């Protein structure tokens, strides 16, 4: 199956700092999503971004499909940004079967 | 829009009993739902794909007789952990796809069910 690697595994930020999370994947994809899992376990959809660039408030994401990676940018981080960020992809052969990366645990300190 | 609920949020049971977890799409009809399992500090692993009106498709290594899935309507899928044992303790998360939504490829996730088997 498709392999998904996320880096870094852990990230500690001071409030107000900016950061970049990376997701590499091993094959062509038709579906790529970024999620934030809060401390209670709820997964929040951040972006559906199989290619291109999107922005939503302080968050933005870029996927370069030809080079098989995606980046999630967090600007002016806040303590509420803490949690685990997952990248999930699905191959062209099955758009709905998501494979998740191991996640990046982000801790934002006040 | 695109809200998915799960019930119960937390369950503790004795070894050998069966536990049923419900997953509902509240404001859309989901022809396809997915069940994931997440161990502490680990990623989500897809267990099975549930299609309304047909048998579920299980991932390799997932026992279909252990984890019974029923998708009887367009808004409800259930996962029953039969004869649960301590190693089945985990966080179970469902997701649903809205085939008529703006983004048909997007999955929306429920809040999860934490199962503890004593």
- Round the Cα radius of gyration of chain B to an integer and report it: 14 Å
- pLDDT averaged residue by residue of chain B: 91
Oligomeric state as shown: heterodimer
Strand content of chain A: over 45%
| H and E order of chain B | EEEEEEEEEEE
* Alpha-carbon distance between the two ends of chain B: 37 Å
Share of helix of chain B, binned: under 10%
Question: How would you describe the overall organization of this protein?
Answer:
The complex is a heterodimer of chains A (110) and B (118). In chain A, strands 2, 4, 5, 9, 10 and 11 form a 6-stranded mixed sheet that branches. In chain A, strands 1-3-8-7-6 form a 5-stranded antiparallel sheet, with no helix packed on it. Chain A has no helices and 11 strands. With 110 residues, chain A is mostly beta strands. The mean pLDDT of chain A is 94. Chain A has strands at residues 4-7, 10-14, 19-25, 29-37, 43-48, 52-56, 59-64, 69-74, 83-91, 99-100, 104-109. Helices cover 0% and strands 59% of the residues of chain A. The termini of chain A are far apart. In chain A, a hairpin with a 4-residue loop joins strand 7 and strand 8. The model of chain B has no long low-confidence stretch (mean pLDDT 91). Chain B is mostly beta strands and 118 residues long. In chain B, strands 2, 4, 5, 6, 9, 10 and 11 form a 7-stranded mixed sheet that branches. A 4-stranded antiparallel sheet of chain B has the order 1-3-8-7, with no helix packed on it. Helix content of chain B is 0%, strand content 52%. Chain B is globular, with a radius of gyration of 14 Å. The interface between A and B is medium-sized, with 23 and 22 residues.
